[in-house]
Amino acid sequence: MSELLFTPEQITAIERTRAEVSQLHQLLVRYDLVVWTGGNISGRVPGTELFVIKPSGVDYPELTPESMVVCTLDGRKVAGFSGSQRNPSSDTASHAYVYRHMPDVHGVVHTHSDFATSWAARGEAIPCVLTAQADEFGGEIPVGPLALIGDEQIGRGIVDTLQGHRSRAVLMANHGVFTIGKHAREAVKAAVMVEDVARTAHYARVGGEAHRAAR
Amino acid sequence: MSELLFTPEQITAIERTRAEVSQLHQLLVRYDLVVWTGGNISGRVPGTELFVIKPSGVDYPELTPESMVVCTLDGRKVAGFSGSQRNPSSDTASHAYVYRHMPDVHGVVHTHSDFATSWAARGEAIPCVLTAQADEFGGEIPVGPLALIGDEQIGRGIVDTLQGHRSRAVLMANHGVFTIGKHAREAVKAAVMVEDVARTAHYARVGGEAHRAAR
Amino acid sequence: MSELLFTPEQITAIERTRAEVSQLHQLLVRYDLVVWTGGNISGRVPGTELFVIKPSGVDYPELTPESMVVCTLDGRKVAGFSGSQRNPSSDTASHAYVYRHMPDVHGVVHTHSDFATSWAARGEAIPCVLTAQADEFGGEIPVGPLALIGDEQIGRGIVDTLQGHRSRAVLMANHGVFTIGKHAREAVKAAVMVEDVARTAHYARVGGEAHRAAR
Amino acid sequence: MSELLFTPEQITAIERTRAEVSQLHQLLVRYDLVVWTGGNISGRVPGTELFVIKPSGVDYPELTPESMVVCTLDGRKVAGFSGSQRNPSSDTASHAYVYRHMPDVHGVVHTHSDFATSWAARGEAIPCVLTAQADEFGGEIPVGPLALIGDEQIGRGIVDTLQGHRSRAVLMANHGVFTIGKHAREAVKAAVMVEDVARTAHYARVGGEAHRAAR
């Protein structure tokens, strides 16, 4: 845990990002993408080498701007902010890895949303059968490697898969979904949309097995 | 963007239609037919050559009567109304095409609702296996062509498919659902019902593959 | 529409039943068993030859005790009650048929709930694979005949199927579900439970096709 | 029904447990794990030979701390507490059996949640295809025996299956789910998570039948 010094402008940017990222978590609940304390969102703080992320083990209705944990880009928690007794999400090292290696990414979202995760459980990319998927992701949603939770392995898998890919979402094998965005809200939109296309593509395939040849 | 002149009666009709169409959008949320800013409803303004439609990129809880965009029947936005800084939905040209070619249609709805869109992804009409579908749509729900978003191609596909057809809903291939109605509320009802019958028909088929012969 | 005379006790019983039946409709919404204005509940009025039923074409949030329509056991609406400008549900003749032929039935519920209706669409009884179904329905949920809407044909199908059967629910072929009960609340419980067992039995079969032999 | 004497500290512990267990029931509703009055939660009272459990036949919105029934570890209701006119859940003997035979268990939850119960209906363990399942349950979710409701048979099946097993959840054949925890909240978390992994594993299998070989 490091203690750092900031300009008033940086403090304002940190607090604004904490408020924004805190509120975005409610969209994960509204769109039914998370259960219990699972899932997390982070956002890079403009004009700093920091990002803010959901604390570990806190229930969604209890999340507040003050409970968002401020971290350096190597994934260490920054002391001195209100609510800083909380530990950051166990996925923090992976979020940090993404921010270090993808400078245009300013938001990262992680969920185990049901349908997208069912494709991830098979290690199967979501084929592009919908114009909405083409618009949002540029084509199929790719699969990333099976990686251990807790260190930056997952982050490396995300970067290796999405670097140079048109998709802003990756299905981490046997695990769940990570999405990135130019800002945190865009990453949340990608998390919402990947579940939506995963669900429709699932129904399309399951409902039509017997009729595929006919098309 | 054109500036036009209206009688007081026309202004009243425009504002009434904006209020009605704005409120109907909440039914798309209530029945879980849309995510994020996807989907849209439009309504023809009685006694005018105009219709009103959802603005582009606005989240459902933020929609208000003032945010509904007023358009001419060739799909151009009419200036001078409060909230007119918003652009109309990217599907506006297609809604306009429908209003020009189907004079009895006074409401159009578009969604990517999950089950109906899964039939659309296969390019497969929904067979009529339910009395509710027979009552509401007169038989099967037809499939329309794959068409590009942004110009009136989709509108032409809707008109070509539904002209003379008993169904008020069409599954646009690999895209989603469009419904029409004698007024906007009737088109919304069709959007709700087509998802309901698509879901039941999906379960009926998937659950019974092994048992079909037995019937 | 007939005008009749009642004792004060009968008037009290009528108003109590209207309030109860009106409120029970909200459970159909809470358990996601109905869309738009579909579905209906009726309840026999104790100490009279009457029952009350949902009006036709009214949206669920708008239902009030006063909007419940009072009917004779031959399915005619009784004039003179507040809100009596509404027509009773189009299924009224069938509810009336049930009340005339099954004197112990005091409540009838009709829905097109998704999973139960998907079994009905195949004309296939729900096999008893759950202890909850055995407890609630005594075994499988039977299928009734395909019948036209609007006259008492459906009622006859319900009575013919459930008379002497342990189940309080019947799947009307290609149509939907009807349930009966010793009071309206019991019929609502059966409507909730039949959808629950239909859903679980559906998933059990679909998920296990490849593994059935192993059991 | 027995009348017993307690220290003030014990009374405080009882009331605290009743409040906690009462409130936890709302999570079963929030996560859509129960319908009607089905399902139940119990919690062991620290410093006593007692546990508290949901009353039989009470609707979820009506549950209060006072309605929670206080029981001895042989499953008999303790008289004298407010609300004690209610009978305890019909699963009480089985909860008691678990508390007697598993001293580290302080919470037990029972549901018929849809997807987990569909695996139970097939008598098939949920294979471990997700890192979240490995984290939460240590591997596959086992199946317990088919047992009669009402006496302690179910409790014996739970203990026989989970004793020495890493999973805190068991699928009771053709019945539903039981989960245990070091406290009631942990058992509720297991009930939420088992449905989540059951759902994802279901979709993963159903969606991929045709593609399994390719992996």
Automatic annotation (TrEMBL), chains A, B, C, D:
<dbReference type="Pfam" id="PF00596">
    <property type="entry name" value="Aldolase_II"/>
</dbReference>
<dbReference type="GO" id="GO:0016832">
    <property type="term" value="F:aldehyde-lyase activity"/>
</dbReference>
<dbReference type="InterPro" id="IPR050197">
    <property type="entry name" value="Aldolase_class_II_sugar_metab"/>
</dbReference>
<dbReference type="InterPro" id="IPR001303">
    <property type="entry name" value="Aldolase_II/adducin_N"/>
</dbReference>
<comment type="similarity">
    <text>Belongs to the aldolase class II family. AraD/FucA subfamily.</text>
</comment>
<dbReference type="GO" id="GO:0008742">
    <property type="term" value="F:L-ribulose-phosphate 4-epimerase activity"/>
</dbReference>
<keyword id="KW-0479">Metal-binding</keyword>
<dbReference type="GO" id="GO:0005829">
    <property type="term" value="C:cytosol"/>
</dbReference>
<protein>
    <recommendedName>
        <fullName>L-ribulose-5-phosphate 4-epimerase</fullName>
        <ecNumber>5.1.3.4</ecNumber>
    </recommendedName>
</protein>
<dbReference type="GO" id="GO:0046872">
    <property type="term" value="F:metal ion binding"/>
</dbReference>
<feature type="domain" description="Class II aldolase/adducin N-terminal">
    <location>
        <begin position="19"/>
        <end position="202"/>
    </location>
</feature>
<keyword id="KW-0862">Zinc</keyword>
<dbReference type="GO" id="GO:0019323">
    <property type="term" value="P:pentose catabolic process"/>
</dbReference>
<dbReference type="InterPro" id="IPR036409">
    <property type="entry name" value="Aldolase_II/adducin_N_sf"/>
</dbReference>
<keyword id="KW-0413">Isomerase</keyword>
